[in-house]
Amino acid sequence: MTSGEVLVRRRQWWTWAVVVLVAAAAVAPLVHMWLTNPDDQRLVDLDVYRTGGQMLLEGRPVYDYVTPAPQLLPFTYPPVAAMLAVGLAEMSWGTAQWVWTAGIFVALAVTVGFAFREALRGRKYAPWAFAALVVACAYVMPIRDQVRFGQVDILLVALCLADCVARRPWWPRGFLIGLATAVKLTPGVFLIYLLVTRQWRTFFMAAFTTAVLTLLPFAVIPRDAADFWFSALLDPERLGANAATTNQSIRGMLIRLYLPDLATSLIWVAVVAVVAWYGFRGARDAYRANDNLTAVALVGLMAVLLSPVAWIHHLAWVVVVLGAIVGDGRDPVRLRVAAGVWLFYVVPVPWWGVSLKAADIPGVSLVLGKIVQNGYGLGALALVWLLVTWLPKRREIA
Fold it and tell me: How far apart are CA 162 and CA 176, in angstroms?
């Protein structure tokens, strides 16, 4: 290595060090806001994970406990997630908070790196652009909620995205999707995607990994495994009030119409079938066009929309959607659309709907309030159309 190459590498190292410090300073207000919350309101989902691991260490039933008042949250994940959470249980509560929060931002950085790879490639100021994108994505509400609640979603996004778009993975492709699916069932939509795109080797690896990690708890913690698969999984109310504003899935939006249960179920099945057909067909077409990122973004949106319950933080997939819209960063129209999507998911649209309904303006509040209350879910449906229909046409024009 020449002295010039050494100098360049040193400059790159210092540049990245400064970039990390600047990005950390930019997200510090977000971290400070939620990590200084009252203890019983702080990272409540992380408390669920950690307590699940603690129940295993103490030999107590994982699915019988709830976290202390006022949260009273049960463990809702597959039993292998509780096994993986033992490491968190071994930490002090304070240490776990900082380790987990740091992990959220590492997973976000990995996601941004893959999602905006084409836009960043070859740019002179790529490190600074990367930092700006990480900070911008950190402030969209689904990612803010990752930090607020100590959620796992952005890690699952990073796993599935890396598995699908990494050019030369050092792991067997499909393994990370299988891991994500075993930990939280919603990434299982990627198994459907692998089937419709005929990625057989990746599908079999993902299915094998999911199966092994699903069956393993039956050998290690059989009582808890049986409790989850034959009891807890069948109780949708364990996840929380399904009609709550934070449930932005198709089913959540329909429940808030307060139709008879049978009518809601029938409409839900019909709409889910149409959205699934349209979304997975679009993902298949994107894959065939060698646009893996758009395909992954669509499948991620399917994980949100088709699930019976999808909280706002499940929409962490919006980071991948933004990367797919931006593309290589050369089309100003796509950049403006991406900026609009980013802004839409930064502002608390669903809560504006709640406030509008409470305003009780005759002829306006109820109908418009419900539409705005469902804003993130309706926005996700619009994003599916954007990626399936608008984006290919935009490529042709550009």
Answer: 8
Alpha-carbon span 161 to 177, nearest angstrom? 9
CA distance linking residue 107 with residue 154, whole number of Å: 6
Q: Quote the tokens at residue 387.
A: 């990626």
- For the question of whether the overall pTM of this predicted structure is more than 0.90, the answer is yes
pLDDT at 9: 56
- Whether the pLDDT of residue 93 is over 60: the answer is yes
174/292 Cα distance (integer angstroms): 14
Residue 243 makes CB contacts below 8 A (sequence gap 6+) with 252, 255, 256
Name residues whose C-beta falls within 8 Å of residue 248's C-beta, 6 or more positions apart in sequence: 304, 310, 311, 312, 314, 315, 350, 374, 376, 377, 380
The burial class, CB within 10 Å (0-12 / 13-18 / 19+), for 5 is exposed
Planar angle of CA 209, 296, 350, nearest 5 degrees = 110
Token match 């395909």: residue?
295
Distances (CA, A) of 211 to 80, 82, 218, 238: 11, 16, 11, 24
pLDDT tens-digit map of 26-64: 999 999 999 998 887 889 999 999 999 999 999 999 999
Look-up of token digits 């933080």 = 313
Burial class (CB in 10 A: 0-12, 13-18, 19+), 15: middle
Rounded to whole angstroms, how far apart are CA atoms 52 and 73?
A: 11
CA 128 to the chain's CA centroid: 25
Q: What is the tens place of the pLDDT at every residue in 141-168?
A: 999 999 999 999 999 999 999 999 999 9
**Taking 70 as the threshold, does the pLDDT of residue 258 lie above it?**
yes
pLDDT of residue 270: 97
Q: Kindly report the number of other CB atoms within 10 A of residue 42's CB atom.
A: 17
What six digits make up the tokens of 101?
């929060």
